[in-house]
Write the structure tokens for this entry.
Amino acid sequence: MSALPACVKKQRSRATMAAFFALFVLFCIGAQADALQTLNVFLKTTQSAQASFTQTVTSATKEGQVSKRKVSKGTFAFIRPHQFRFDYTSPYAQLILADGQTLWVYDKDIAQVSSKPQSQALGNTPAAMMALASDVGMIQKDFYLESLPPSEGLEWVKGTPKKPDGPLLFVRFGLKQTEQGVSLLRLEMRDAFYQDSALTFTDFQVNPKALLPDHFAFKPPAGVEVIRQ
């Protein structure tokens, strides 16, 4: 059998490469679309959750200066659609709690509590998106959502505010599908001052039976200063 002409070989090679590239693009698009679907599953099926967290806040880098980092640790929990709490344990003790009506901030070290109506205080904050939204449609009212390529063993979705003059430049959700369900293992954001915050969650429990509404009740302790806004 005679060998194929060189031009035919080149055409076949180009066709093979084109087909491979097309499959690669389709695979990437499918993988990225899945991340948005995974976020939607998380919002729809995770009615409650609790986890430990480490928060790292990195200041914007200025010319001639080294950026500063601040690390905090604590626990986090929520019950949709109206309750969540952050218990910071280090470097100082602070409680941030939404009970469904009021957002409370209790700084134990200075014995001070501030409160504000929850509907006014939260707005479109990452905490509200993570704990209170029931599907991606609720987030998409105020954010453009896009799937990002997977990295660090997680699926990623980025949210960019539709109003460019707000306090947040973007937020990223790092998700992972487990036997329990979909876990949120990473939450990253950058504010209007180009300060980066990253929350890493560990021991993320989906729909824990022991997490009850009483966990989100708060009454200012006796003797503390209460500031109502």
Summary: The helical segments are 6-45, 118-122, 126-132, 136-140.
